[in-house]
Amino acid sequence: MHPIEDIGTGSASSHPWFGRCRLAPVAPAVTIGQMLRAELRDTGWPYQSVLPAAPLALPRASYAALFRLTTALLDLVRRTALESADSTAGRLAAYKMPPSEHQLFTDDQLTEELYANQVARPDIVIGPDGPQFLEFNVSGAIGGPVETHCRLEVWRKLYADDQGRVPFSYTDPFAVRAQMFRDLSAELGVAPRVAMVGSARDQRVESTRYFDIEAEYFNNIGLTARFFEPQDLHQAWDCPPHLRYPLGLRNFTIPDWTELGIDTAPVQAALDHGCMLVDTQTSTFLSSKMTMGLLSEGRPWMSSAERTLVATYLPWTRILTDRRTTWGDRDVDLVPFSVANRELLVLKDSLGMSGKQVVIGSQASQPEWEAAVTEAAPAGTSIVQAFVAPRSCRLAMIADGAGEPHDADVAPVFGPLLFGGRPAGMFSRFFGDGTSGIVSVLGSSADNCADNCVVAI
To answer: Per the domain annotation, does 332 fall within a domain?
Structure first.
């Protein structure tokens, strides 16, 4: 059986953007399931009762378009965030950042701004009119790189022929991230030694395998790397010069560490002693959903082409305050309009992660929605965004206890990874039963979530 099969136009909820073809399973369900779970063992990745039986495959043009659009829109996100004020202090005030985010900045403003978007991943769904960018995650701690690498390891083994060739194209995130660090070391004139900064407590396991997988990959290709828990991070700089780690990946978020009671002081000490961690703390402004609101509303410096790009690929998004704005060709009072149009909108907190602090209007009662909107409006740190009904594609799936893969129409959220401005593979997540909503493998919807890497055919 040829691994690429033509399935036609799919279901009524599908979209031509997905193409007509997919990759068929090439091994028994039990084999595929065991291999997928083995690759992500001891990483804290939750058990999933349904798993993909094949990579999620896109036509080459669709696959490439997501990276091209991500690159263009990320540039606009960066420019929008940086022009909000002339300094870090000004941006903290403009974004009304909580006190917890007033830390881990370097003293060098240029460094902060230059290296704030080295690691990024948007969340994209395919709506009735094509790709729609729901948000941008800009942080060294984004989900997807490890998971995508591990899924790719399985699919490469299963689909390779006798010459090691596979019937799809892909990019491994670890290879691109390694090149990002090589380029950074050359640009900064420092040794290519990389500190992977994080905590196993973040992964809810005792094992450090989540971080070790990438560090070992780097070391195997000649790029020195080591994982550091925060209490050990002083060893990255308090040592002879030739043993120091001048670069690193900041694989954690301040809210996560605050919730877990993990001290960030060792990270500040490393920054103060010359260890540059990407992304810099300025990335918090790029990741804020308020930036999406500013960009959607339009900035004075945007060209007509940039305005068209934003209008085409970003859902209507507004920072929620008591003010006038536009909806299509109408002028509206934003808070009353939002309350009255529950089924058209989604409410999001500016710094929410993993699907938290998100209310989908159509899934809430009118009293619940009105309470959430009116409570959020005075703070001016939430957004309302047009709800996008996601389109689906056909994917072979494996369910616990099933002897053979089954077909499902899933509505994926795509996460193209961009490292140092380069495409670095693509992550996807979806509900295993084909439903849609807030898709978070680690969040409140984890019980029904699945994930996969995305390849091109």
So the answer is: yes
